[in-house]
Amino acid sequence: MKQILISSKDGQNGEKRIAILENGKLVEIFYEDFQQDKLVGNIYKGRVEDILSGLGSAFVDVGEEQSLFLSRSEINQAILRSRGFDPNEYPPMINKVINEGESLIVQVKRGGIGSKNPQGTTKVSLPGRYWVFLPKDSRLGISRRITDDREIQRLKDMARNLKEENEGLIARTASENASKEDLKRDFNFLLGTWKGVEEEATNVKAPHLLHSHAGMVRKVIRDRLLEDVDEVLTNSKPVYEDIIDYLHYLRMDNFQDVVGHYQKDTPLFKHYGVEEQLKKCLQREVSLDSGGYLAIDETEALTAIDVNTGGNVNHKNQAKAILNTNLSAAREIPIQLRLRKISGIIIVDFVDMYDNEDQQKVIDELKKSLREDRVPADFIDMTPLGLVEITRKREGESLADLMEGYHDEE
């Protein structure tokens, strides 16, 4: 059973936490503070205020507290073509592409952490229910969760029919088996949104906000409410009503029956065991179903995960016990990466296996489980020492930072 639980402290405009549970187990957690303006996804007309040629980057004033850091790799194909550069070649020096004082349409790609500025991009992306529209880049992609070859080809053909030559489209997981009418309607909505952004940009002076992100609750509903979700619960009547309105707006009325307003006296997260799981999820050791455990150590350079059998080797078939522990770890590690929001280089030390077939079973299970991660997380290789290397894209603050200073529902 898969559930989405939305806990709001003070109604629609209050601090929110969103938990995703699978069979009662917490697998992802999101935090949103309405009072703190979240910039990621916002689109601005910005003004280039400083170019750092030696670093291949620039700072763009968008009218917020901090300017956006823009690297030359984030210059879109349309700008490169307009300045006479081949977008398929290595990006040129940034001072040859943009100038100080110039106005650009930029999107916040990643929030700032500590003293670091938020990161910006001119490679604007507009996410919808079925598509991600790339108005300035010609990339065409399909969600890696869609594996049926005929469906992949259908979506590629549909994307080519919808977009212009220099536009891009990425088919999202929800697009699988969606009707042509729904796919076309979603694209037309995104195209209209972009045209509105462009039109406003011609009528205002930089810096100026052109488009705001949907907000965490709507984003989760848009992206995560799929056929595999059994229940969506919120403790806030205003949030419940907003979800129902948003589903109607998205023409997803068939999902309204799974959305409910939680009204019991026991706080929502406490009732479903989320608070207890949150308190445990930052502990160094994580128990495995097999009887073994993971030891997770996060450092600035990398994250090391050691797989231990515990007392699970007192078995007539020791090799089988080790295999079961490693398979259990291969399923649990991707969950911990998602839950703790671990990024960068991850090194995993599985319990030693001497059978090549067993090793391959564990690697295959790890790769399969990593595909469930919406944030790009890839199996890289097994080192000569038998260590497994994984990389995962950064998605913002770690869970420890998000939880710092936060009080639960009680």
Helix- and strand-based class? alpha+beta
| Through-space gap between termini | 26 Å
CATH structural class of the largest domain: Alpha Beta
**Which architecture name of the largest domain does CATH use?**
3-Layer(aba) Sandwich
Per DSSP, the total helix count is 10
Q: Predict the CATH topology of the largest domain.
A: Aminopeptidase
Unreliable stretches:
405-410
Strand portion, in percent?
25-35%
Can you give keywords for this protein?
single chain, 410 residues, six-stranded mixed beta sheet, OB fold (Dihydrolipoamide Acetyltransferase, E2P), Nucleotidyltransferase, domain 5, alpha+beta, six-stranded antiparallel beta sheet, globular, Aminopeptidase
Please provide a written account of the structure:
- With 410 residues, this protein is α+β, with helices and mostly antiparallel strands.
- The protein has helices at 77-82, 149-162, 180-203, 216-224, 237-249, 268-271, 274-280, 318-340, 356-370, 399-403, and strands at 2-8, 16-22, 25-32, 43-52, 57-61, 68-71, 103-110, 119-121, 126-127, 131-134, 140-142, 168-171, 208-211, 231-234, 259-261, 285-287, 293-298, 303-308, 344-349, 377-382, 388-392.
- The strands form 4 sheets. Strands 4, 5, 6, 7, 8 and 13 form a 6-stranded antiparallel beta sheet that branches.
